[in-house]
Amino acid sequence: MPTETVKSKVEDTSRDWASGLDELEKTPITETRWGRFASRLWAGTWPKALALVIVIGFWQILFLSGWKDPWALPSPLMVWEELAAYVPTPDYWTAIGITMQRALTGFALSVAVGSLLGIAVARFKPLRAAIGSAITGLQTMPSIIWFPLAILLFQISESTIMFVVILGAVPSIANGIISGIDYVPPAWKRVGAVLGMRGFQLYRHVIMPATLPSFVSGLKQGWAFAWRSLMAGELLVIVAGQGSIGALMQGAREFNDAPRVLTWIVTVLVIGIIVDTLFRAADNKIRRSWGLDQE
Amino acid sequence: MTETRTASRVDDTARAAGAVVLTDVVKRYGRGPGAVTALDGVSLSVEPGSFTCLLGASGCGKSTLLSLVAGLDDLSGGSIDHVDQPVAMMFQESALFPWLTVQGNVEIAMRVRGVGRAERRRRALELLETVRLTGFAHKRPHELSGGMRQRVALARALAQDASVLLMDEPFGALDAMTRDLLHDELERIWREQGLTVLFVTHNVREAVRLGDQVVLLSSRPGRVLNVYDVELDRPRRIDSAPVAALAAEITDALREEVSRHAN
Q1: Do A21 and B98 touch (CB under 8 A)?
Q2: Other CB atoms within 10 A of residue B39 CB
Q3: Which domain covers residue B75, as residue numbers?
Q4: Tens of pLDDT along B81-113?
Q5: Which of A1, B4, B53, B236 has its CA 20 to 30 A from that of B87?
Q6: Which residue of B has its CA nearest to A205?
Q7: InterPro entries, alphabetically (chain B) (predicted)?
C-alpha cells in the first residue's frame, strides 16, 4: 500500500475533526438581528413612557390641588404651550448653542488635561503618592464651592465658567484612566513583552486600548460633572451679551415666568438624556465587541 | 544576533538557529535568609528543530525556566544561549486582545517589528490557514471557543518568526477532546515549520505524546532529575500502549520525587 495515500487520509481526518469540533462549539443563532433590535427597543421604551405618564399625572394633580398659585406652579399644558411657542424662536437655539459650545470646549479641555494627568499619575509612583488621593478628594467636592474664588481670579467672564467646569470634570476623567491602567490584566502585558514591546509600544498597542472601557466610563462621569458645573456657573456668572441657557433662565425667573423656567428645565433634562444615550451607545459597542455583555 | 546573558561563557555550538543551551541556570527570589531558590543549577541542551517537554510537579520552577529563556526575567546565575531575541511564547490563557479581530491579533506580532501592512495581512491569513481558522479572520476573540483561541494564540506566536517556540501549559485549560486535536495540530505545525519547541506541562502523557525528550524536574529547588528520550514513531496517539508505558515509568519517578516532600 502506498504510504502517500495513508498520509493524506490521516490529514483529511484531522482536518474534518478540527472543523467538526469548531462547528459544534458555535452557538446556534435563534433570532434575527432585527428581531432582537426591535424587542430591545420596545423593552427600553415602554418603562420610560410609563414613568413619564406617571410624573405628568402627579404634576397635574398637584396643580389641580391648588397647593401653589398658577404663576408659580403652571400646569403641564401651560408648559407644553410655552415649549411649543418658544422652541421655534432663534433665542432658544442661540442659547442652546452658547451653552453647548461652552460645554464642549470645557469638556474637550478636561479630556486633554484629565488624560495627561491620569497617565502621569498611573506611570510615576511618587506622583501617585503625592496627588492620587487628592484627585479622588477633588471629585467629591461640589464644584459650586469654586465659584467665589474663580470670580476673584477671572472676574465675571467665560474663563470663570471654564475654570470651574474643568475642575469639575478632570478628576473623573483622570480616575477613569488611572483605574483602567491599574486593572490591565497582567497576561496582556506579558504577551506584549513576549512580542517585544517596550515602553511606548506597550502603551500604544496594549495598555491604552485595554484602558478603553474604563476611560469611557470616566468620560461619562466627567461629562456629568462638567454639565452640572456649567449649569451652576451659568446661573451664577452671567456674562454680558451671552444669552446662554442659564442666563435666559435667570431672566425668566426675574419676570416670574414659571412656564419658561420649566421649559428650560425640560430642555436641560432632554440634553442630558441625549448625551447619556450617546455615551451608553459607545459603552455598549465596546462591551459587545469585547464580549463583555455575555452571561 | 546571538544574545548571551551574563556573558560568562559563550558556547559556539549554541549559535545554530533554534538551539537552546542552558548552563548551570540558577534563579533565586528575594535576598538573605528568606530567599527562595526556584532553580538550582539546571543544565539542558536542546537540539534545533527538536521538541522538548519540561515536566514536573508544582514548585519545580518550570514556568520560571521558560520566563528566563524568554528574557522576561533575570538570571541569578549561569547562562542561557540562543539566537532569537525575543523568542515566541504561548501561555495557558490565550490572552488575545479583545479590541482586535482574530487577524489583528495575529498581525500585532508583526506590527511591533514594523512589517508593512500588505505583508502583515498576507502572512496573517497564511498563518490562520496553518491553524485551520481561515474563515475566522474577522471574528472577535470572544466569538471563538477555548481551543480556537489557543490556535489563534499559536498563529500569533508563529507570526513572531522566531525559530524557538516556548509553550507554558498551553492546553492545560482545554477539555480532553480539544486537547487531543491540538496535539495533532501542534505536531503537524512543528514538523512543517521546523521549530524548536520547549513545552511545559504537568501532564505526563501529554509530555510523552509530544516530546522528543522529556525533562523531569525536581521540586523546590528545581533541578534536572532525568532526561527521557522518547523514541516512538510519529504521529503518536496519547492513548497508544507505548505512550502509556513510558508515561507510567515517568509517573513513578515523579511520584517518588513528590513523596520526598511529605512530612
Answers
A1: no
A2: 26
A3: 18-85+163-171+190-262
A4: 887 667 899 998 999 999 999 999 999 999 998
A5: B236
A6: B108
A7: AAA+_ATPase, ABC_transporter-like_ATP-bd, ABC_transporter-like_CS, ABC_transporter_ATP-bind, P-loop_NTPase
